[in-house]
Amino acid sequence: MIRSRLVNICLAAITAVVFIILYGPIFVPIVSSFFVVKWGNVQWDQTTLAAYVALAHNDGILEAVKNTILVGISAVILSIVIGTLLAFHYQSGRSRGRDIIQFIVFLPFLMPPIITGLSLLIYFREIDFERSLVTVIIGHTVFVLALVYRTILVRLQALSRSMVEASYDLGASGWQTFRHVLLPHLASAMIGAAVLSFALSFDETMITILVTGTDSTLPIRLWAMMRLGFTPDINALVAIILALTTALCLIAARHLMPREAGARSA
Amino acid sequence: MSEAAGNRRVAGLAIESAAPRAWRASLAVIAYGLPIAFILLPLLAFLAYSFFSVSGVTMSYTPTLMNYQRFFTDPVFLPVFWRTCLLCLEVAVLAVGFGYPVAFFLAGLEGRKKYTLLLLLMVPLLMSYVIKIYAIRSILGGNGFLNRALLALGIIDQPLTIFVYNLNAVLLTLTALLIPFAVLPIFLSLERIPRNLLEASADLGASNLQSFRRVVLPLSLPGTATAATFVFVLAIGDFLTPQMVGGLSGFTFGRIIYSQFGTAFNWPFGAALSVILAAVVILAIAAGTRLGGRQRGAS
Amino acid sequence: MTDDRILLELRSVSKSFGPTAVLEGIELAVRDGEFITILGPSGSGKTTILRMIGGFTQPSGGQILLEGRDITGLPINRRPFNTVFQDYALFPHMTVAGNVGYGLMVRGRPRREIAKKVSEALDLVALGPLADRYPAQLSGGQRQRVALARAIICEPRLILLDEPLAALDVELRKQMQLFLKDIQREIRTTFLFVTHDQEEAIAIADRICVMNFGRILQLGTPHEVYYRPRSEFVARFFGDNNLIEGKLGAGDGMHRRIDTPIGSLLCAVDGQSEIAAAPAGSRAFAVFRPESIRPQLVSADGFAENKAEGRVTAVTFAGATTVAEIALTGNPGPVPARLRLASRVGGAAVTPGEVLSLAWPVDECRLVLA
Question: Is residue A218 included in any domain, yes or no?
C-alpha cells in the first residue's frame, strides 16, 4: 500500500512530536552535564567536565552505584541458575504442577511491582527477616526470573530432539550432552537474558523502595535526593548510566536476535 | 507423538542421566524453592494480611472483613479508586492515540530504518526512572521549557500552573513515560500482517483508506488491545510518579496504598487495598486478552 | 556378502502408545553384514522399530537381542549402534571435524587419534577439504555425508538410517543410494535403512522387510518381494502390479488354477505352501507384472502361458517404457490391466482402440489370498 505524501508527512510529524516528548526529559539532564550550572541555571556558554569530576568524588553516590551493581549481578546469577533449572524441569514432562509453578514464576512480572514489593515486605516482617541488600536481591530476582526463565525455555524448546538423541547415540553421557550440546545452544539466550535483566534491575525503583533496608541502591538514593534537588554531578551520572544501559541492551539484542545464516546457526 | 511432546521427553532424558537421584532432589528443591518461598508464600501472606486488622500499633490476627468494608463504605476511598481507574484509562487511550500513528509510520518504513527508529524509541526507557520524572516535572513547571515555549510563542502571557502538582501532571507524566510501551505491541501486530493481504485488497479495487479501515485496522486490533492493557496495568501500579508530580490534589489509589505502609501505618488495610488493585489488574488483563484474542491475526 | 550369523533379533516385539497399538508381534532377525531395508508407508511403524533398536523408545513387550544378549533395557549411549537421523542432527556450533569426532571425543580418546580417524572417515565420504566448515555452510548432500561419517567412525555393530535421503532431490538421491551401497560393502558394517520409497528399497537392499499397520508382511530379497509378493498389500505396494480377483481352483503343489472374470488362469505357487494348501473356492488375486505381458504374435510357442484379449484404452509414454491401459474382455464386464513395453522411436508400439491378444508366462503369474 503506497501511502499518499500527505499521510506520510502527518505520520512523520506525529512521530517527531513523540520523539520530542520522549527525548525531552532525557536531553535536559544529559546535555546540561557538559555545561556549568550556576544557581540552578545552565550557563550555555561555558562547557566543562566539572560535573563528571564531582561525580568521581561523590562517595555517597558511588557507594549506591556499587550496591546497585552488586544487587544486579546477584539477581542475574540467581535467576539464570533457577531459570535454567525450571526450564529443564518444565520441558521434561507434562503435569499440572509444572504449569502451576510456571504461573507462579510469571506473577511478579505481570503484577504491578507494588504488589510484589508489598507482599515481600509483609512476608519478611512475618518471618522476622531483616530488610537489607539481601531482601533487595530477592526482590529483584523474583522480578526478573520470569523473563530469564521464559527466554531460556523458548530457546530450549527450539532445540530439535534429534540433536540430543544424536549425542546419546554417539555415546555421550547426560552430563556430556549437557556440556557439549545443550549449553552451547542455550548460551546466547542466557547471555542476552542476563544482560537485559541486569539493565532492568539497575533502574528498578518500586520494589526496591519497599524492601530495602539501610543500604541504598542508586534509585533509592536518587529518590531521597529528589526533594532537595539534584546537584550537577547527578546529570553526569545519568549520562553515563544511559550510555552504559544502552550499550548493554544492544549487546542483549544481538544475543537474543534470531540467528542469521552463518557459522553459528543450525 | 507430536514434536513438542517428543522434545519434552528427550529433555527429560538429559536430566535423568545428567543428575543421579540424590542430585536431582536437591536441584528440584532449589528450582522450586525460590518461587514457592519468595513468590507464593509472600502472596499468600499478603492475602492473609488483608483479613487482619490493626488498632493503634498492635496487630490483631483474627480474620475480619473490616478492611474491605471500610474500602466500600468510607466516603474517601471509593471515589479515589474510580478516579484512578479513569485516569489510567485516559493514559492508556492517550498513549495508544500517540502510539498507533508512530507504530504505523514505523511499520511503513523500508529496511533497517524501522528497527533503528524502534530501538531509538525504546532508549528513553533505559533512562533513570526518578530522574526522568524529575525532568518532566521541571519541563512542565512554572519555569520549565513548556511554559517558556508557550510564552515565547505568545500563546499565553502568564506561566500556567495547571500542569504541576495535580492529576493533570500525573496524566501527562505517565503518558510521556508509557508511550514506548504502547508502540511496541502495535508495531509487532502491524508487522505481522502479510503484505499480500494489502496487495489483494488493492487488487480488488479498495482505496488506501478502505484498505486501512477494512484490513489493517481490524488485524491490528489485537495488538492495540494488548498495548492499551499494558499501559493501563503499568499506569495503575505506579505509585511513585503520582507521589512526585501529584502534589496534594493528585492523590491516586497507589499513593493511598503506599501511605498505609508509611505514615498511616495500617498494613492490613493497605494489603486489602492492594488486593483490590490486583483484582482490577487481573480484570484488565482478562479483558485485554479477550479483546486481543478475538481476531487470531492474519492467517 | 552377508554371512548367516544373526546379529540382531527382535522377538515378539510390540509397542503401544496408550491405547494405540503401533507395533504387534514383530519377529525380525538381522544378519551380520547385510544391508536390510524396512519399507512401509507412513504410520506403518517402521520408524518405531528403528527407534526401539536404537534405544530411543522402549518396547511395550518382547525382547531385543544382540548376538543372543538381551539389550532391551540398555540405554541409548551404551548400545553399540549409531544412527543417521532424518534431519541429520548435526551440531551447529561444531565444525564438520568436530561433529565427526564427537563420538570419539566423549569416549575420551586422545586428540591425535581422533584427528587421524576423523581424517580417514572424511576421506571415506569424500569430504576431506571441508573439515573446518560449519554445517550451515554445507549443502544437503554434504550434511548427509557428514552425518554418515559421524556414525561410521565409532565402528558400531549396526548403523541405523532413518529415511536419510528423504530431503534430497531425485538426482542426488540416486547418487547417494549407490554411494551408501558402496560404503556399506567397503566397511562391511550392517546397515538398517528405513524408507517409504519402494524404488529406493529395491535398488539398495540385500533384504527388504515390508511393513504395514504395525506388522511385518514379508521379508525377502528385492526379487522376492517384487516378483513373489505374499499378500495383496505387498503386491500393490511395488509399482503397478496387475491384480485380478477370482476364486481358487485345483492345484498340484507347484501350480494352481484360479477362476477369474477373464477366464481360468494358471499360476505358480512354488514356495508358497499356504496358498497351495488353501481350500478351493477361497478368494484370491492373480498377480502379474505389466512387463510380463506380451502382445501375442504367434499363437503357441512352447512356454506355458495365460492368454487374454483386450482393447487398449490409453497409452502413456513414460520415457524408456510405454504403458498401455487395457480393458480385458471378461465376464460379466471388462477387467482393467496394464501392459508395459519398451518404447520405440518410430512410433507408439500400441495405439488406443487397438484390440490385442495378450499372453504372459505362468511362472510369472503368482497368487495372493484376498
Answer: yes
* Contact A114/B at CB under 8 A: yes
* Residue A253: inside a domain: no
Q: From the list C82, C89, C105, which residue is nearest A160 (CB)? A: C89
CATH number of C240-369: 2.40.50.140
Give CATH for domain B74-294: 1.10.3720.10
Per-residue pLDDT 10s for chain C (370 aa) are 556 799 999 999 999 988 899 999 999 999 999 999 999 999 899 999 999 999 999 999 999 999 999 999 999 989 999 999 999 999 999 999 999 999 999 999 999 999 999 999 999 999 999 999 999 999 999 999 999 999 999 999 999 999 999 888 899 999 999 999 999 999 999 999 999 999 999 999 999 999 999 999 999 999 999 999 999 999 999 878 999 999 998 888 788 999 999 889 999 988 888 888 888 888 999 999 998 888 765 555 556 788 888 899 999 988 888 899 999 988 888 999 998 888 888 777 788 888 888 888 888 899 998 8
Residues of A in contact with C81 (CB under 8 A): 169
**A117 and A216 in one domain?**
yes
Out of C17, C75, C77, whose CB is closest to B1?
C17
CB contact under 8 A, C75 and B17: yes
Chain B residues whose beta carbon lies within 8 Å of the beta carbon of residue A14 = 98, 101-102, 105
- Contact at CB, B102 and A238, closer than 8 angstroms: no
By the CB < 8 Å criterion, does B120 face chain C? no
ipTM: 0.84
Q: Tally the domains of chain A.
A: 2
Task: Please give the residue of chain B at the shortest CA–CA distance from C48.
Answer: B1
Q: What is the 3-state secondary structure (H, E, C) of chain A?
A: CCCCHHHHHHHHHHHHHHHHHHHHHHHHHHHHCCEEEECCEEEEEEECCHHHHHHHHCHHHHHHHHHHHHHHHHHHHHHHHHHHHHHHHHHCCCCHHHHHHHHHHHHHHHCCHHHHHHHHHHHHHHCCCCCCHHHHHHHHHHHHHHHHHHHHHHHHHCCCHHHHHHHHHCCCCHHHHHHHHHHHHHHHHHHHHHHHHHHHHHHCCHHHHHHCCCCCCHHHHHHHHCCCCCCHHHHHHHHHHHHHHHHHHHHHHHHHCCCCCCCCCC
Are A165 and C91 inside 8 Å of each other by CB? Answer: no
Same structural domain, A78 and A138: yes
Contact C87 A265 (CB under 8 A): no
Which residue range is the domain that position A165 belongs to? 59-230
Confirm or reject CATH 1.20.1070.10 for domain C6-232, answering yes or no.
Answer: no
Same structural domain, A207 and A123? yes
